[in-house]
Amino acid sequence: MRANSVGFAAVLLLAVSPTLQAQRSAAPAARFELTVEGHTAFLAYEQTNDTLTIVHTEVPTPLRGRHLGERLVDFAMDFARRQGLRTSIVCPFARTYLRRHPPSSATP
Q1: Residue among 39, 45, 38, 37 nearest 10 (CA)
Q2: Angle 94-96-54 (CA atoms, 0-180°, nearest 5)?
């Protein structure tokens, strides 16, 4: 995991034991990654001062069917909530998933 110049980095250990790393580069575009068995699934996002935009979610073929894309979306939504950010969903996968599984409105 790397941190940018403001020292941001977050790690969430998942129940199955892969590590989900929130990495944010100095550029406005960043991604959350989940690496399992040498393959990396990711959710690309853009962040402004008040909004997190979910742009794209991609899961390599060998990792499909394990609900990793869903975990990435859940993590991104939780990240936005904890940072006090509004969300904008551009990614078709994330949009469909969130329609079927609306995020909890619980506070941390």
Answers
A1: 45
A2: 20
d(CA 46, CA 75): 15
* Rounded average pLDDT over 64-85: 95
DSSP structure class, residue 17: S
Buried residues in 63-83 as b, exposed as e (16+ CB within 10 A)? beeeebbbbbbbbbbebbbee
Report percent pLDDT > 70 for the chain: 69
Domain borders along the chain are: 10-100
- Predicted TM-score (pTM) of this structure: 0.73
How far CA 62 is from CA of 1, 35, 38, 108, in Å, comes to: 23, 12, 10, 34
- CATH assignment of 10-100? 3.40.630.30
Number of residues in the chain? 108
